[in-house]
Each structure stands twice: as C-alpha cells, then as structure tokens.
Amino acid sequence: MKKSLALKLLEDHLLAxxxxxxxxxxxxxxxxxxxxxxxxxxxxxxEAMDPDKIExxxxxxxxxxxxxxSDYKNPDDHRFIQSAAEKYGxxxxxxxxxxxxQVHLEQFAKPGKSLLGSDSHTPTGGGLGALAIxxxxxxxxxxxARGYYYLKVPKVxxxxxxGSLGPHVNAKDVxxxxxxxxxxxxxxxxxxxxxxxxxxSLSVPQRATICNMGAELGATxxxxxxxxxxxxxxxxxxxxxxxxxxxxxxxxxYDQTLELDLSEIKxxxxxxxxPDAVKNVEEVGRxxxxxxxxxxxxxxxxxxxxxxxxxxxxxxxHPDVSLVISPGSATILRLLSENGGLATMIGAGARxxxxxxxxxxxxxxxxSSGAVSLRSFNRNFKGRSGTLDxxxxxxxxxxxxxxxxxxxxxxPSELPPPGAQEEPENYGPVKSYFIYPTDPENRPxxxxxxxxxxxxxxxxPLPSTLKGRVLFKGGDHITTDDICPSNASLLPYRSNxxxxxxxxxxTLIPDFKERAEASPGGLIVAGDNYxxxxxxxxxxxxxxxxxxxxxxxxxxxxxxxxxLINSGILPLVFENPEDYKSINExxxxxxxxxxxxxxxxxxxxxxxxxxxxxxxxxxxxxEKKVLLQGGYLxxxxxxxxxxxxx
Length: 646
Known about the structure:
Helices cover about 30% and strands about 20% of the residues. Strand 4 (about 60), helix 3 and strand 5 (about 90-95) form a beta-alpha-beta unit. It is globular.
C-alpha cells in the first residue's frame, strides 16, 4: 500500500504494536515541550519518577502562559520549573523568549522528528514536517523519563489544496473554512495531512497556523510535507542542516479527502462561542467592536505582524477600540524594533504586550462587560477571555487590524491590499533567553518549591463496585475551560489542585465542589465531545481531588479521555445514546463486579429509577492495567514498551 506521510513517520518511530487503525501503539519521542501553565504538574510527576537521565533528544521547558507576576505564585512556579530543568537536563526558556509553539518552530522543531507537548496546540510543529502531538502532562513526563508515548493509530484525513490565497486572505481563513466544513469533531481520530499543488504557495508560518488550529478539529495532529518551502524557512532561521525532505508516496491511500481551492477562500471569522461557528466576514454585517487582540501561538509570526504593520501604516486605531498586539517571540519583537514596524504599531495607537500567550489564555486584557472582542486566537469558549458575557470572535490578523481601524468587524478588502509579506533573509534567532543544561555532574540534586506548589492528588485503586450519585449532568462540547476555568485570577494556582477544585465547573454551575463533598465518590454525566479544548490535565486532576470516580458521556475528546485514564477516572460511554436522556442529576448509580468486567461491556444500574443501562469502556490491555494499578504514574515506573516489565 502506498503510504501517507503520517503513517511513514509513525512507522519510523514505532516501538511496539501494529500500525493498524484503532490499534494502540507506542512510539519513540524525540522532543518534548512544556509551558508553565501545565509544566509544574509535569515536573512534579517527573520528580516522582526521578529518572537518572532523560530519554529524549531535546526537551524544552517554556514560560509563556503565567507571566503576570502580581505576587509570588507565578514566579515561584517559574523558579521550580527552572530548577527541574537544571536537575534533569532540559533547556529552560525564560519569560520573554516568546510563545512556546512559535519559538519551537523557529529554533528547535525538525522535519521528521516526533514532538510531544503538554499543550494541545503542539501540532503547530506539523507545519515544519514534524510529527507533533499534544498530550496531558503525565504523558509528557513519561516521555521525558521513559522515551515513549502511547496512542491509537489514527486514520489519515487528506486535505488536498489547489490554487493560492488572495491578497486579503490569511492561513487563518483556511483553517476557519475547514472548521466550518468539518466542525469541532471533524478531525477526531485523524491526523490531518495536507497535500496538493496549493502547498507550494504556503510558507512554513502559514502552514503552522493551519496545523495549530487543527486542534480545534479534535485531530490527533496535523502535518505538512517537508519541501523547498521548509528548507527556505530553515535557511532563514540559520539551521538549514536540519532540513530533511519528506512527503507521502505518490498516490498514497487516505481514509478521507477534502479538496480545497485556496483561491476561493474568503476572510472568515468564528462567531461566539465556538471555533466552528464560522461565517465569512461579509456575512455578519458591521458589528461594532470594542477590543481587538492580535497574537497567540496561531497568528503571531513575523509575516502576520508585518501584515498588521502594513494595514496600520498612516492610519489610526478607531477611538472606540482598544488594540493589543503580542509578537510571538523575542526574535520577532527584535525584528519589528529594527525595521520600524513597532514604531508604526505604536504610532497607530496599539498597545504592545510582551511576547507571551497573554489574553489568549485569559492572562490579562479581559474585555469590558458585554463587549465585542475580535481576536486572532484559536479559541473563543464562553468566559475564556475573563469576561463571561463578552462576545469573542476569531479572525485573521488582517481582519483584526482592518477592524481596529474601521471600528467594526470589517472585511480587510475595505482597505487597500497591504501586499505580500516577505520573510526576512536572516531571522537572527534570539538565543539569550535560553538556559541550556550543564554537565550532569554539576546539576542540582533538588528542586525549589514555593508554598503554593502542592502535591498532585493521589489516584485510588479501582473498586470492585462503583457506586455514587450524579453530581452534574451537562450537555455537548463541555470544555476543559468549563471543568477547570482559566483566567488571570486562577492561572497562578495551576500548581495548587486543592485550591483550583473550588472552581470546578464554575462556568456552568456554581456549586460543584459542594455537591461533591456532600456525595463522595460521585459521577459526572455529559453529552458529546466531553473535555474538548486545552490539554490541561487539571481538568482530570480537579475531579480526582473531589472524589469523582467516573464520567459517563456520549463521546470524549482524545486528550481528555487519556487524562482521565491516567488519573484513574473511568471514561464510560453510553451504548445507547437515548439512555443519556434518562439519567437525572442526583440519581444514584452502581456498577458491580467492575474489576472483573473492565474492558468489556458494563451494566450500570440506576438505583433511583430501577433501570439498567449498557455502557462501553473500550480499553487497550495497557489502559486496563493503568486503571487497575491506580493510574499511569504507577504503571509507567516499571513499564517497557514491547518488552518485559522492570
């Protein structure tokens, strides 16, 4: 069979298992990345395993999320992460270096290498031809310490591109168009692989934008070939030696195909409150806008920033609009300062933020009450901005910049086209923010923990009988932002699960913690795509802290399902979707002989309604052992893929 590039890269890294769709395999991990919002848990878990050496070629610990230092909590986390990097031999990226995915693309990602990151937008690296996958923190800790990662072999979804983008169109408009066609579940169980003659018109930064928001499709990863555009990007970054040509076989076989003519793509935007609520800009009318935010790991590249500069040249930000801009890396910020782009932004009335995630993850720049905020980010879930009643729209940097000038959400074609944005001949990457590992003999023996850093909650042995009340019944597409809210006031507590547990499900109900304490060992019931969004394992650790034993849903998002298993929480699925409707909050549920039935069909008894409900819990042999052993950390300490246990 002629192979897709995705299957070739999986085959290159295969450690155990068989490359058959749906089968669980173990792959070798070459590189990892973490960021500070998820990183504290990763390094606490790594410390619990305490390896003599790391098993990756490169692991980088970034600080880019919780950079607001209003008290000791965030800087204490940064100090802990730096001390863990020093102890175990990782590269530490100081605050100010930039957003992890943008910096990694510029400085470290390599075609053909596997990259695992504790951030759902890690597939950004697929724009460079890397097999880049987002995962929960414990999976990344295991990859650092043991060198492997388990996943089910995905299907491969071919996106066949023709034509080239018009003068007002950005790669963001491409991925928004795909989201409009496929929805937030359209990539679930797939690697999205981009092919076709239209590839040649897309630069690596444009490809990275498309791969980045493949996470919003629910995809395992997204991938472009490594070709002459890849080689050109690496040359400009001063690392052409990292180039390796990679492509699918001619006439490769794919499970699904979507054909897209780039020349037909129009400026688009995602309407509140989902990345797939997409319309063309011309369809929505002139909605007055209060705030515009440009940046994030999706659209903070040099070419994105220069497109904004060209639109702002000789113009002023509308009096009713606050425009904030976050360049993606120190390298980009330095280039903008050298070429006058920064002066143009400031002269137009923009506020320049540091090179960090900032408002994308709710760290500052919350909109005013009931405001309309237009953002070049990747998610617009309700409340994620820090303002629950704000309407958040997602669009390209060009649409954002034009709207900031016009005062309403407008098509950038209403202004003269800015012209093509060329990459610099030499990026001159800034490396002064990196602290590289020292000789193993000189590394510290201990990490530095502040008072806000608490141990992660312990998993519990799987009981023979599961019995508990339904603490909460939710609908479809409950996000990890709903389960564990993310905003400027809560982000400093990412290393303090007991404190975070007070805010579980606060965007949906006010009293989940009280319910859990009143009914220990409770359960959660939900609809489709439970746990979509961020990879944060906090959305599993917070329920674990509150004694939740299981989640019963119509379906689960990939990363969150694995995070639940890693934490010893059962991700149960309704065999008959109609049974979801029959369960009420407060119902008392029971599953008997759980340990004996694990991995097979289960019968749930609704004791409150005297009714039996069929559930499924499809598990690999490994996942079954993880649950029986009380979580992945216990299992990983002795497991060797494809070999005998230590």
